[in-house]
Amino acid sequence: MFKHVVVSGIDKGEATVVISGDAVFTHAQEVQHALSEALRACDHLTIDVGAAGELDLTFRVLLCSLHRRSVLINKRISVRVAPAPGRDNRQRRYTRVEGCLFKDASEHCSLWDGPG
Q1: Domain-by-domain residue ranges, the chain?
Q2: Is residue 44 a contact partner of residue 14, using CB atoms and an 8 Å limit?
Q3: Which of 17, 34, 35, 96 has its CA at 20 to 30 Å from residue 41's CA atom?
Q4: pTM of the model
Q5: What phi, psi does 8 have (nearest 5°)?
Q6: 28-87, pLDDT tens digit by residue?
């Protein structure tokens, strides 16, 4: 089951989507809708997956799509991957070795290479 909460940021225009459920293929439409609506309502969106259950390739593809859209409309997204206390973080590493084909005015894709 996909679960999430949107939290307003301290600064105006910032928000965080905290995912606490599974963001997998069977919930792709819900995930895409939640992330798109959150991005629409702010200028800088952080997606916190530290408390998430299962994340699959579909989730990563949705993040790439959201990143591309955010850059095209002059907004920013970032991913926070710090695990909740007592959770294993090995499956939450968001690094991409081959590089992203979509560059956002930098040498490398900031979504995958930037701090999260």
Answers
A1: 4-113
A2: yes
A3: 96
A4: 0.77
A5: -70, 145
A6: 999 999 999 999 999 999 999 988 989 898 998 899 899 889 988 999 998 888 765 555
